[in-house]
Amino acid sequence: MSALRVVQVGFHADAERRPAASLLRAWPTLSAVAGAASRAGIDVSVVQAAHRDESVAIGGVAYHFLDDGHHPPVRLPGGASVARRPARILRRVAELAPDVVHVHGLNHPLAARRLADSLGGIPVLVQDHGSVPPDGWRRHAWRWAYAPVVGVAFTAREQAAPFVDAGALRGDVPVFEVLESSTAFTPGDRDEARRATGMFGDPCLLWTGRLDANKDPLTVLDAFERALRELPEARLWCCFGHAPLLDAVRRRVVRSPALRGHVRLLGRRPHAEMELRFRAADFFVQASHREGSGYSLLEALACGTAPLVTDIPAARRIVGDAGSLTPVGDATALAAAMVAWAARAREPLRRAARARFEDALTFDAVGRELRTAYESVARA
Question: Which residues form the Glycosyltransferase subfamily 4-like N-terminal domain (predicted)?
Fold first, then answer.
């Protein structure tokens, strides 16, 4: 029996207009996820919107980068615009004769509908990558656009409910649990990592992510300030990129005598450095209100760093019993988790975190989940 042929499709073109080799380095998940499906026994090809035509092959997977943006969008009366039909992408997907088409992202509904209509009944699976349910007239546009799809994928099945409740997805659409990605990070010597990074603390806590309302750094600071009453040697190290709340975070730290001496705002750090920082930390802390998946959370578990995070669907699915889950916005509960988990022996926690990763969160696990989803929609 021949392998199932799947074409993974990305309609989002790189804003920096990078060539294929640079783009694959900048978007490592693109090749890592395709490679995971390939190792799971799927015949995978990738068709990706780009700013120049290129084709490359990596590990048995063919990547087709297509410039399909020569023409501006169609302008409608009133100032609205509609993207032109991505004819070259649609044509290349059809030429590859897939058994299943996997569209990455829910944010290109019109393109996804045009693709489904062009395929003559070939099943289409669409995977969410952290999108927000639409409102207003866009709900009805999404409902029409995604009516033909035979399945949707989220990190956790519960994440589909807001889209169904909004009317953006039909209520009977099959939902598959598929991790967005994984990581190649590994555990390492904690003391060596601390020497390399300068991190310390008992416990040593690491925050990563944007400083914005969704990540809720102010709740983390409130919780840490409370925990310091019982953990006077603790330190919180904060790595972040986009930071609309940076001024508020700085003010919160400066006005607190406790936080001033215990919080370090490191700003943006190279991704290659983060493996050492996760290894150096005892705990990973995050207070997100919503996550599509949680790349930092996956990296923490991969390095054996126990997570203290909020009880949201993606985190519940990823963490299992290897960390703490506290209610969103509840600084008291998060502080209690910091204190309680700090009292536990660290090495068993590290082993449990890494075991959780190896059991359910590796790229091989991603490949298995994709294969299950593909085989199911192929039978639909």
Answer: 33-146
